[in-house]
Amino acid sequence: MTARYVESSRLPTDWGEFDMHGFEDAETNKEHVVLTMGNVGDGEPVLARVHSECLTGDALFSMRCDCGSQLQAALKAISEEGRGALFYLRQEGRGIGLLNKIKAYKLQDAGADTVEANEQLGFGADMRDYSILRPMLEHLQIKAVRLMTNNPRKVAALEEQGVEVVERIALHTGANPHNEKYLNTKAGKLGHMMEGRG
Ligand SMILES: Nc1nc2c(ncn2[C@@H]2O[C@H](COP(=O)(O)OP(=O)(O)OP(=O)(O)O)[C@@H](O)[C@H]2O)c(=O)[nH]1
Ligand SMILES: [Zn+2]
Known about the structure:
This protein has 198 residues and is of the alpha/beta class. 33% of the residues lie in helices and 27% in strands. The protein has 2 domains: 3-91 and 129-189, Rossmann fold, CATH 3.40.50; 98-127, no CATH class.
């Protein structure tokens, strides 16, 4: 996988003004963005979030997951520090795509958990590929991060891309009665670190 840098612009948000950098992956035709604030290329560790697209949670206010709340918390944390980077990767549905995620939700409505639903559809539990990050990190000259995530696989994935993860910062937010099973499955089957969640 390889991403080509295309263009940057300003992006004013509720949490202040970010710089938005667009990348294109010619192999998959996916378009990815990175929002940065401050000087992220100075060699100092960067407060960072690698966020996987979740149309339902990020844009449509879904309570089935914690994605929208994590996205907002990450932007807020970056703006409070005045420096950081949010990688918005188009890996909808842990890489299976939106329509397959809807099929997985239907199976979950009938009792399956998120992992069982993916397996019933013939997919692995998590099909995300993080190698797309490498050209983005290189372009932005980010060499070390303080990563906001509960997912140890993301820490390992960044290290595989040659970036030092000097700290993992837990991101426990957005728990509600509708996503209790989903969060429990993440902790029980997908290795997410959910200690202290409450
Ligand atoms: N296949 C599938 N994907 C889902 C489901 N619910 C959320 N997702 C996707 O999962 C991705 C988010 O991954 P999560 O496992 O919630 O969290 P994470 O990104 O691994 O870890 P954090 O950094 O801690 O947020 C997004 O791409 C969502 O669209 C589901 O039930 N099935
Ligand atoms: Zn989500």
